[in-house]
Design a protein that fits this description.
Rossmann fold, 5-stranded mixed barrel, 4 domains, 14 helices, alpha/beta, Transcription Regulator spoIIAA, 6-stranded parallel β-sheet, 447 residues
Length: 447
């Protein structure tokens, strides 16, 4: 690889989960510390970071396709970009990416991206570098201070997973479960609030597995962390994702009842309504225990909006077992949900299980499941019409005078009126669609 000029512009392209969005933001901040600025819209960047996700099928092939597209586009303008592959595909593929794609200068895993500036220094000299080490928590200490200019922010509190669901690569690409120290999280939240952040979403592969010691030295769980963050005056909203049913405990249920800054929204993946399938997935809950847990949460916070994840077509899933999933959906009536066809990931136990489901069967089941989920989502939105609620203004809409924000139940709401980004406003919900609601501005509560 030939030496190149130091890049002046960058673009970070993140795929997949909210954890990747957070990681993408932090890598952008690292590059900003080096004096590199975001590439203007419509212009090719000098440095492109592909922040990848390994959850879906053919994830690696999509990365190679993107690399080829970037190389071709660079040749058209007479300058190929430096390319870094980050994230979970980088962790899983490692040196294989370097071998297959000479255009790639850097390969960095999700626990090592704090070393991106050092790798970039080598890349400018013509040296290719791979770093897929998985230190426990070192990257957070090495990252620069947050620089948020937006009213919402992600805050990673926990990483990794010890659950080893048979379909999932996360334990192999993100490592074992670790919790960031309590003091570090409070300090970061305080800095974000000082910068104008009004809503923080706490992130983790199993966020409710977070644990730590508070300022008094007492051991606390996620509920204790939420209660502490709720004391920050400027912080008006707290959310968290993604939870695992196995780690959902009474203290967190009570938190939903007692902490008004904790929004009435819970994303709690179930994956299937069949106990046999759940056992084959190595999920530690049953359909009954999951439903019982939701009953406890609803009793604590009756207006809570529930969300979940579903996988259809897991190896061996029968039509009757899929019908059990549909029955669970009808009982819960999710406000939002995410559903996917099973995708075999190399190295996971499920990839070699007997009874792999034909593609056309998975397609048909997914269509039926999504039809049910969409029906309930629309019904939840329609039931919200007539309510007046606080909406956090996040950005301008497409039309003059139009604004968009989120309701407490994480619904997208658009409305017109005099306000600014970051305002908390009272909005009457007047019309519902499948994915958003129209509102009527009542008054500005706070900025």
């Amino acid at each position: 690889m030939k030496p190149t000029n130091s890049p002046k512009t960058y673009r970070v392209k993140s795929f997949g989960c909210q954890m990747n969005v957070y990681d993408g933001e932090r890598m952008a901040e690292l590059l900003g510390e080096q004096g590199i600025v975001p590439a203007p819209e419509g212009e090719e960047a000098d440095l492109v970071v592909l922040n990848t996700c390994h959850i879906r099928e053919k994830a690696a092939e999509k990365v190679y396709s993107d690399i080829g597209r970037l190389t071709k586009a660079g040749r058209k303008v007479g300058k190929e970009p430096l390319i870094a592959v980050a994230g979970c595909v980088a962790q899983a593929e490692g040196e294989e990416i370097m071998a297959r794609s000479p255009a790639v200068s850097m390969v960095v895993g999700p626990q090592a991206y704090h070393r991106l500036p050092e790798m970039l220094e080598k890349a400018v000299k013509g040296e290719r570098a791979t770093d897929t080490d998985m230190p426990a928590i070192a990257k957070f200490a090495a990252l620069p201070a947050r620089k948020k200019r937006f009213p919402t922010a992600f805050l990673t509190v926990q990483e990794g997973c010890d659950k080893f669901c048979t379909y999932c690569v996360v334990p192999y690409t993100r490592g074992a479960e670790i919790s960031r120290p309590f003091a570090d999280l409070v300090d970061e939240a305080l800095r974000l609030a000082d910068q104008g952040v009004r809503e923080i979403t706490l992130l983790g592969q199993n966020v409710n597995a977070w644990s730590g010691s508070n300022a008094e030295g007492d051991e606390i769980g996620l509920d204790g962390l939420i209660r502490e963050l709720a004391k920050i005056p400027e912080l008006q909203r707290i959310r968290y994702t993604t939870s695992h049913p196995n780690d959902f405990y009474n203290g967190l249920v009570r938190c939903h009842a007692e902490v008004y800054k904790l929004m009435p929204y819970l994303h709690l993946p179930v994956q299937s309504g069949s106990d046999r399938v759940l056992k084959a997935m190595n999920r530690s809950h049953t359909a009954e225990s999951y439903l019982r847990l939701l009953e406890e949460v609803r009793a604590a916070r009756p207006d809570i909006a529930l969300s979940g994840d579903f996988i259809v077509g897991f190896p061996g899933e029968t039509e009757a077992e899929f019908e059990e999933t549909l029955a669970l959906v009808e009982e819960v009536k999710y406000a939002q949900a995410f559903s996917f066809k099973y995708s075999p990931r190399p190295g996971t136990p499920a990839a070699t299980m007997d009874g792999q489901i034909p593609r056309e069967v998975m397609d048909e089941r997914l269509q039926r499941l999504q039809a049910a989920l969409n029906r309930h989502q629309l019904a939840f939105n329609e039931a919200s019409v007539g309510k007046t609620c606080e909406v956090l203004v996040e950005r301008k809409g497409k039309l003059p005078g139009q604004w968009l924000g989120k309701s407490p139940w994480l619904q997208s709401v658009w409305f017109e009126g005099e306000c600014e980004i970051g305002d908390m406003v009272e909005v009457e919900l007047v019309e519902a669609g499948p994915n958003s609601l129209a509102g009527k501005l009542r008054e500005t509560v706070a900025a």
